[in-house]
Here is the input.
Amino acid sequence: MKKRSIRKVALVLLILLVAAIILYLSWGTYRVSPTDIIKTLMGRGARLQNAAILNLRLPRMLVAISVGIALSTAGALLQTITKNELADSGIIGINAGAAVAAVVFISLKTANYYSTLGALSVYVLPFLATAGAGLSATLMYLLSSRNGIKPRRLLLIGLGINAGLNAFITFFTFRGGVGDYNRVLVWISGSLWGAGWSYAKIIVPLVAIMFVLVLLNYKKLDVLNLSDGNATSLGVQVDKERKRFLTYAVILAGSATAFAGNVSFIGLIAPNIARRVVGPFHKNLLVISAIIGVVITLVADAVSRNLFSPIELPVGITISVFGVPYFIYLMMREN
Here is the structure.
């Protein structure tokens, strides 16, 4: 794709991103105008504006942005590894592995889990979720590595693992009390409720580091798009690189799942749209995919938070409303 066209796409997406940020910060029970948002961010806001923007919406927005980047990047990596545009961490069991670990951890806490989340717990949860995602990905990789890795087999085994882990989550939550079930149900549906500065301080730098690390390896990802024979002839150790990028995807998806729950379809939708507007080369694909993922997450969370106020829908449900039809569309396009 020509550089001029890519710049136009990037400009349009940046405008949409700014619009999504303004919508996110202004829309709520207490509405704040764009002018007052700028004043508040510059330290000249009224007390209610400071409380609404700086204490509630801004940290939640930073977490939402990080989740959008993490899941869209993880999806792009998995689609390259499996050579299948239907791959997504929420579909092939990686998010579900993180969810199993996190659900067990949450179930061991008190009914006031979110309000009493201590300094230690906020570090333990992402670690356990990433470990759960890693175990799920390892199992998927081992089961699909017989006689060499077959991308389609990797995807199908991931789908089976995802179904099994989700069944376990349902069984585990039914064994708990009503309070545990309701709390876990909201979490596994994907929710940014309760996301504050304690969350943002962890997930923002982690996702930023991982995204830069992935972006620096865009050339190897481009080579992995080729057949295994061609990639090997260009000096790339295919299995080793697949393992490395699968590890990156696990860390990104596990971190996002730890703080936002089991949000699906961002990793499916964002990379696919990006691939259609800027092509398959990862230098542009990763950046455009991340911006699309952020816009989707911000708009979906703003709608989830406010459309049926004072009731808040899990953001994962709102995204799935659009994600499921898109997934069916992609399935119908598959030969």
About this structure: Residues 47-82 form the longest helix (36 residues).
